[in-house]
Design a protein that fits this description.
The complex is a heterodimer of chains A (356) and B (307). Chain A has 356 residues and is mostly helical. Chain A contains 14 helices and no strands. Chain A has one domain. The chains are: A mainly alpha (356), B alpha/beta (307).
Chain lengths: 356, 307
């Protein structure tokens, strides 16, 4: 009897979960109304034109289009585009999501939604997907511009796919953050401000703090007289998509072109701590901030003195894990905030009935 | 169909609803009457699965609104006192959206049902208009259509006629009569008491979070008829309130200058005797009449507090 009830509950949960993603009326409504009017379609047309124009200007005035097209220039343009579009996502996604639930409250439509057959989870997922659909459309329409760099060579299709994956994860994470803050706070304006602050902290604050922690580690190890290789990337660094993105760009010329020399970018590469007893013969003491070689292999600079250490996690994987956990927590939190009857209240009520 | 038992709901230290119990049978139209802040909206929100009570139970069609909210929602259509609309949707899209939210697949038959619903609320000619362009009365009717989109057996209507002009009120009342003839169980809260008189089969009077009366309308009217006495003296007299309060069968005494109103529990002969005693007591009575017994009087009698 208990097993049957559990199975029934699981079946209902699964069907509700599937419905939230496939038959969600909020998603249909949001997508239909978002492209209504002239603003959104115009933006979809103008955005790739703007990006294309920026690329042309970059070629014309920065590189002058002299000589044969070479991969180095391709990578440089690709880096600008990749980071620029990431910045755009950080601006657009909070704007799209930070008012989705608080706006419903302000419009006094949330009560009408929560008294339907839609669960709080379905409402949150519908709102999230409906808002993100537009941001993802912007990414899709930018793809032709990104494909320009393929002409230069050097950028592989897999690099482009990895970039798309990072964009997708970033959009979903920042979107979930916006929905959560919007579910938590009643006023859309306050919600938007807080969402932007949190996005800034995740995007820029986390790697900055990571860099500070990294430098501190290096300095402490240096003071203690221990030999240190490139050091371990602080976990907080992976909260930002930038290290994951940089890990898919060449650490050499392209980064240096944009002021990211190898030392500064090093923490982004998920390198390994190599500690040995102080004053290992032949070991070269590092400078604070770390000394790095190019690439992400984590090869020690003094191989004979280093023990074999496990390979560090790929920054993209580490970031994906962080994003995945954060999105699950944020969606669950938003669902709890939106639900008029919380799960523990339902359980209490069942117990009450049973006792009677 | 609706069962509320010992409902208590507090907002912080403020008690909004205090031990409310009521029962609404299938097909009944239950008028929920009370002044602002009496606890009507809180009770309706608990029934609509939007609020969790601190104590007590509420069921819709046998489903506990806290333990089985999804099942209860399937049976009820809720229209709040204040509501918003999506201004970027057309009338038909608005109804289709809520039909989808109720888990109804939008197909040919659902579109036909939606068109019938628009006919019912007299919005068929406005079907392609944007919701935002509708008048308040039309929006109220559209919201009612939204509440009906999944053909619920129970309707919870919180002040459905508030803010409407007289014509829109009449249209709303006619619509509710139509729904009554369709066999819906309706719980309606309103301040427009006279309009509820020819609509409701049952009423519940609520004040200060407590139910003062719950039962059939005919019983409420029977109680009211002949019990409210309006009295006027030639000039104000001190001691009138005290004198009236000491008389057997006199309740809810309200004195304002030379005028007084009170509820008298007794037959016509006893009322005559009371008048005689008043005159013999030296009060210069100018008029002594029984008030008309309508829902408003019932409400006034039961919600009037002692000064």
């Amino acid at each position: 009897m208990m097993v049957a009830a559990t199975l029934k509950g699981l079946r209902r949960l699964l069907s509700g979960f599937t419905w939230a993603f496939t038959g969600n009326p909020i998603l249909t409504k949001e997508m239909a109304t978002r492209v209504r009017g002239w603003q959104s379609p115009s933006m979809l047309l103008l955005y790739p034109l703007f990006l294309g124009g920026a690329v042309l200007l970059l070629f014309r005035f920065v590189y002058g289009l002299r000589g044969p097209l070479n991969p180095e220039v391709g990578w440089a343009v690709y880096t600008v585009l990749a980071l620029g579009q990431l910045g755009l996502l950080a601006v657009v996604v909070p704007a799209l999501t930070s008012g989705v639930i608080s706006g419903e409250r302000e419009r006094q439509t949330l009560d009408l939604l929560t008294t339907t057959q839609m669960s709080a989870f379905a409402i949150v997922i519908g709102k999230l997907m409906g808002s993100l659909a537009y941001a993802l459309l912007l990414i899709v329409v930018s793809l032709p511009v990104f494909s320009i760099v393929l002409f230069f060579g050097g950028v592989q299709l897999t690099d482009l796919l990895a970039l798309l994956l990072i964009y997708f994860m970033t959009a979903v994470t920042y979107g979930a953050l916006g929905v959560f803050v919007s579910s938590w706070l009643r006023r859309t304006q306050v919600s938007a401000v807080l969402t932007y602050i949190l996005v800034f902290l995740l995007l820029i604050g986390a790697p900055m703090l990571g860099a500070a922690i990294y430098s501190r580690q290096q300095w402490v190890h240096h003071q203690s007289g221990q030999y240190l290789g490139r050091g371990r990337t602080p976990i907080i660094t992976h909260f930002s998509p930038i290290p994951a993105m940089l890990s898919r760009l060449p650490a050499g010329d392209a980064l240096q072109l944009w002021g990211l020399d190898e030392n500064r970018a090093a923490y982004a590469y998920g390198t390994v701590v190599h500690t040995t007893p102080a004053a290992a013969p032949g070991a070269t003491p590092p400078t604070p901030g770390g000394t790095v070689g190019s690439g992400s292999s984590g090869a020690p600079s003094s191989p004979s003195a280093q023990p074999a250490l496990p390979k560090p996690p790929d920054p993209l994987v580490a970031h994906a894990v962080f994003d995945g956990i954060l999105v699950i927590l944020l969606v669950a939190g938003s669902s709890l905030l939106v639900a008029p009857v919380k799960p523990w209240q339902r359980r209490n009520r069942r117990e009450l009935r049973w006792r009677r | 169909m609706i069962n509320v038992n010992g409902l208590v709901k507090n907002y912080g230290k403020v008690r909004a609803v205090s031990d409310i119990s009521l029962q609404v049978d299938e097909g009944a139209i239950y008028g929920f009457i009370g002044p602002n802040g009496a606890g009507k909206t809180t009770t309706l929100k608990v029934l609509a699965t939007l609020l969790v009570p601190d104590r007590g139970t509420a069921t819709i069609g046998g489903y506990d609104v806290v333990g089985q909210p999804l099942q209860a929602r399937g049976l009820l259509g809720y229209m709040p006192d204040f509501f918003g609309v999506y201004d970027d949707l057309r009338v038909t899209e608005y109804l289709d959206f809520y039909a989808g939210a109720q888990g109804i697949t939008i197909g040919k038959s659902q579109r036909r049902l939606r068109d019938d619903l628009l006919e019912l609320v007299d919005l068929a000619v406005h079907r392609d208009k944007y919701v935002d362009s509708l008048s308040r009365g039309m929006k109220q009717r559209l919201c009612l259509a939204r509440a009906l989109v999944h053909n619920p057996r129970v309707l919870l209507l919180d002040e459905p006629a508030s803010g409407l002009d007289p014509r829109a009120r009449v249209e709303m009342r006619e619509l509710l009569k139509e729904l009554r003839s369709m066999g819906k169980t309706i719980l309606i809260s309103s301040h427009i008491l006279k309009e509820l008189t020819d609509l409701c089969t049952h009423i519940g009077l609520i004040d200060n979070g407590e139910i003062l009366y719950s039962g059939t309308l005919s019983e409420a009217l029977r109680r009211a008829t002949g019990t409210v006495v309006a009295l006027r003296l030639a000039e104000p007299r001190e001691g009138l309130a005290l004198w009236l309060a000491e008389q057997p069968g006199v309740n809810h005494v309200f004195v304002d200058g030379e005028r007084a109103e009170f509820v008298y529990e007794g037959n016509q002969l006893a009322i005559g005797g009371l008048l005689q005693r008043l005159v013999e007591g030296g009060f210069p009575v100018v008029s002594f009449t029984e008030a008309d017994g309508d829902l408003e009087e019932v409400f006034m009698n039961l919600t009037r507090r002692e000064e």
